[in-house]
Write a structure and sequence with these properties.
Helix content is 52%, strand content 9%. By secondary structure, it is an alpha+beta fold. The strands form three sheets. The protein has a seven-stranded mixed beta sheet with strand order 3-4-5-2-1-8-9. A hairpin with a 4-residue loop joins strand 4 and strand 5. Helix 6 packs across helix 8, helix 13 packs antiparallel against helix 14 and helix 15 packs antiparallel against helix 19. Bound molecules: adenosine-5'-triphosphate and magnesium ion. The site of adenosine-5'-triphosphate has 11 residues, from helix 7.
């Protein structure tokens, strides 16, 4: 058994010795029964928060008002929460008040799905009043109690239900699914951040394609709180891609989101707007946007030439990736090439076939992709040309970088300074 579980059992035993009940609860019980690795262990106890604080040498008051104390053991930490009941719910969101109770079954009753409403004692015995074990075996996501009521209490549960179904390859139980479709409009009351966190986990999880299909089928995306003209519904335009489980073939959050926007025929700017409305983390949104911009740019380059008329020669793979590297940086082009491979494989994008096949190798032959790597800098150029800095300087550096990246010139100080001088002379003539 893992050290985390051993330490968790120590916490349970310590509470038991002091005369309280204590059990593992929720996700860790579910994942343990499924034989999946545990992310963390949540503990529920009849002890009050102040008792927990008293019993352990190292604790942190994580959410005292909600009954949660973090117990810090040697290698892991554990959230220990007093058995509680969530009496009143406010506006289809989290509960207004919590009430500490002494009965575990009551605590399990407030949990969302039967597979999440099980507990386990230190000896491994299961406490399962709602048939979670059975649903786990059958592969079913089912609300604890009346699904209509449970989704009215907290509308986020609808998204969680879809996420669990996708993560574990489960079906949503009929009544749960009906209630979900029926109550989809209640999602309007849920904070965008919570919604987006769930979407992230779906798209980055095991079955992003099924997640999107279920989202569309449920009607939930029409009811996000932010009035996004959310393009998810357009997924229906790409049914073939869904069947071939397209998104699952991309790894990494940014690639998956970029892939999704592509399947929905969203332009980079539209995608950026949608991500802003959905309150994506800036870093993630930037990464997705950059990939989509690179996608538009690289694709227009790749089929820039017209080989039939021979008016313009088709750019070589090397040229395309070198120019892309100057424009977006090598790491972005490298990542985009994976998107290009996916486009070829999933969407039969023949125009990208050669680029996708040879691009990664050619990209490594590009000697420089950043002005900082250039053998000359701004001071060198203002000195050599005896001109005060101005907009010309950035332009010139960019031109020299392009020449060096394309290997038309070596990245050598003297060569680049000479080039700069002859360009300056040409301009004054
Ligand atoms: P994972 O962490 O893998 O997403 P989890 O089951 O641990 O799964 P958490 O969000 O960490 O999910 O919540 C821990 C437990 O708290 C859940 O197993 C569930 O019993 C309960 N829970 C969480 N969110 C809700 C909710 N919105 N409504 C009811 N119960 C909830
Ligand atoms: Mg958890």
């Amino acid at each position: 058994e893992s050290i985390m579980i051993q330490e968790g059992i120590q916490v349970l035993r310590r509470l038991e010795e002091a005369g309280y009940e204590a059990v593992f609860v929720g996700g860790c019980v579910r994942d343990r029964l499924l034989g999946r690795p545990l992310k963390d262990i949540d503990i529920a106890t009849s002890a009050l928060p102040q008792d927990v604080v008293r019993l352990f040498p190292r604790t942190a008051p994580t959410g005292l008002a909600h009954g949660t104390v973090t117990v810090i053991m040697e290698t892991h930490t554990f959230e220990v929460t007093t058995y509680r009941k969530e009496s009143e719910y406010e506006q289809f969101r989290r509960p207004k008040e919590v009430e500490f109770i002494s009965d575990l079954d009551e605590d399990l009753r407030r949990r969302d799905f039967t597979i999440n409403a099980m507990a386990q004692g230190p000896d491994g015995s299961c406490i399962d009043p709602f048939g979670g074990r059975d649903d786990l075996d059958k592969g079913i996501v089912r609300c604890v109690g009346d699904p209509m009521e449970r989704f009215r209490e907290d509308a986020l549960r609808m998204l969680r239900g879809i996420r669990f179904a996708c993560e574990y390859g489960f079906e949503l139980e009929d009544g749960t699914w009906r209630a979900l479709v029926r109550h989809a409009p209640l999602l309007e009351h849920v904070a965008t951040e919570r919604v987006t966190a769930e979407l992230d986990r779906m798209i980055e999880g095991r079955s992003p394609d099924r997640a999107v299909a279920l989202l569309v089928e449920s009607g939930l995306p029409r009811h996000f709180k932010e009035p996004v003209e959310w393009p998810l519904a357009r997924w229906e335009r790409a049914p073939e891609a869904t069947e071939r489980s397209a998104l699952a073939k991309l790894d990494g959050a940014a690639l998956r989101w970029a892939g999704l926007f592509i399947l929905m025929e969203c332009e980079a700017e539209q995608a950026r707007e949608a991500m802003k409305r959905l309150k994506f983390a800036g870093k993630k949104s930037d990464a997705v946007y950059r990939l989509l911009r690179a996608d538009e740019w690289m694709r227009s380059r790749a089929d820039g030439g017209d080989s039939r008329t021979g008016v313009e020669a088709e750019p070589s793979v090397f040229e395309t990736v070198a120019l892309g590297a100057v424009e977006f940086g090598r790491p972005v082009v490298r990542e985009w090439l994976r998107l290009a491979g996916w486009r070829v494989e999933m969407m039969g994008d023949d125009g990208l076939r050669r680029l996708a096949a040879e691009g990664a190798a050619e990209l490594e032959r590009v000697p420089v992709d950043r002005i900082a790597e250039l053998a000359v800098n701004g001071t060198d150029l203002t000195g050599a040309l005896d001109k005060p800095a101005g907009p010309w300087l950035g332009r010139l550096l960019y031109e020299l970088l392009t020449e060096a990246a394309l290997r038309r010139l070596p990245n050598d100080r003297d060569v680049l300074l000479n080039e700069a001088k002859s360009r300056a002379k040409r301009e004054t003539n």
